[in-house]
Design brief:
alpha/beta; TIM Barrel; binds zinc ion
Length: about 240
């Protein structure tokens, strides 16, 4: 299929599933206005604004977003005791969701999805083993062991490609997702303009709403990819 515009690059609809603006995340210097301009310039299909523990009302940017031709969706990156969880289907922060199991209950009631974001960031490095649940370093040669971590019992998908993780951390996340058969997604985790879209979730069809995205993640019809900023997208795969 030819590039049909509107975010189709090659045969994929590209979507950045994870980024932060300075409107809702104190650690970001990406303004919503710059995000809209940049998203249009790179030819991405959709962008999800996923602030830390708070949700946007996207009506605030409705007019410029519509004019850009890029689909803007709302998500949230919830801080839990077991790590950062990307959530779709949640319109506001709810007390108690810093507990992973409580978050699952809330998200289930709303028919949403949960993504284990950058699940191995720093966690393969023995110097940082104190951040792991059992204070042991995760063995990078044993994805089947890491797959038993509680976070993967509770989540629908794994962020197998995160723009701010090392290649080793991303490949390990992909191995774990494949071992479990969980949905695979990608997000840039941008906090500034230039990295928006550096990695993207790849869809076989365009989407127009947060609900469309939730349905595709539940159906495991997403994959991670990169290359949009270099003009060609390729799926993120394990080395042969
Ligand atoms: Zn995070
Ligand atoms: Zn983030």
């Amino acid at each position: 299929m030819a590039d049909s515009g509107g975010g189709g690059i090659g045969r994929y609809f590209t979507i950045d599933l994870h980024l932060h603006t300075n409107r809702g995340s104190a650690d970001s210097n990406l303004s919503p206005a710059d995000l809209i301009v940049r998203s249009r310039a790179i030819g991405i299909g959709a962008v999800c604004i996923t602030e830390h523990d708070n949700a946007w009302n996207l009506r605030e940017i409705e007019a410029p977003a519509a004019e850009s031709g890029v689909v803007f969706l709302r998500g949230m990156e919830v801080t839990t005791e077991m790590g950062h969880i990307g959530v779709f289907g949640l319109s506001e922060y709810v007390g108690g969701i810093y507990k992973l199991r409580e978050l699952r209950k809330v998200v289930d009631k709303l028919g949403g999805v949960m993504i284990a974001n950058h699940p191995f960031r720093y966690k393969l490095d023995p110097r940082f083993s104190f951040i792991n649940p059992d204070h042991q370093a995760i063995d990078p040669s044993r994805p089947e062991t890491a797959a038993k971590l509680e976070i993967f019992e509770v989540c629908d998908a794994v962020e197998t490609l995160n723009g701010a993780c090392s290649e080793e951390e991303n490949l390990f996340a992909l191995r774990v997702a494949r071992h479990l058969g969980l949905a695979e997604v990608a997000g840039s985790d941008s906090h500034s303009k230039n990295s928006v879209g550096c990695v993207t979730t790849l869809l076989d069809e365009p989407i127009a709403s947060e609900r469309d995205l939730i349905d595709l993640i539940k159906a495991r019809r997403t994959r991670a990819g990169r290359g949009l900023l270099a003009g060609g997208v390729t799926p993120f795969e394990l080395p042969a």
